[in-house]
Design goal:
single chain, 3 helices, 0% strand, flat, DUF4148 domain-containing protein, signal
Length: 96
């Protein structure tokens, strides 16, 4: 039984390794030829405009300014504690 299993595993490994090397190594399928109608100077001018207008700041890195409100932080905390005690705010495994 072990010999049959070992022989099947070796045959599968040989087939899988042969399939992995089935393509050519020169990557000729990636050599796509195309023709453009713009000059090099036009492309360079467009690229310099993009670099000048792009921000180097990562997206989402700004913090919003604090909102103006008439509520005190202690009042909000007290209301949240009361709502949690009354079961209006789900917590733990009972949450949404």
């Amino acid at each position: 039984m072990n010999a049959k299993f070992l022989l099947a595993a070796v045959a599968f490994a040989a087939a899988a390794s042969g399939a992995a090397r089935a393509d050519e190594a020169d990557a000729s399928q990636f050599a796509i030829k195309f023709e453009g109608n713009r000059t090099r100077a036009e492309v360079m001018a467009e690229a310099s405009k993009v670099a000048a207008t792009r921000s180097t700041e990562p997206a989402g890195s700004r913090v919003l300014a604090p909102m103006k409100t008439s509520l005190e932080a202690g009042t909000v905390r007290a209301e949240a504690i009361q709502a949690l005690r009354l079961g209006k705010i789900p917590s733990g495994e009972a949450s949404f």
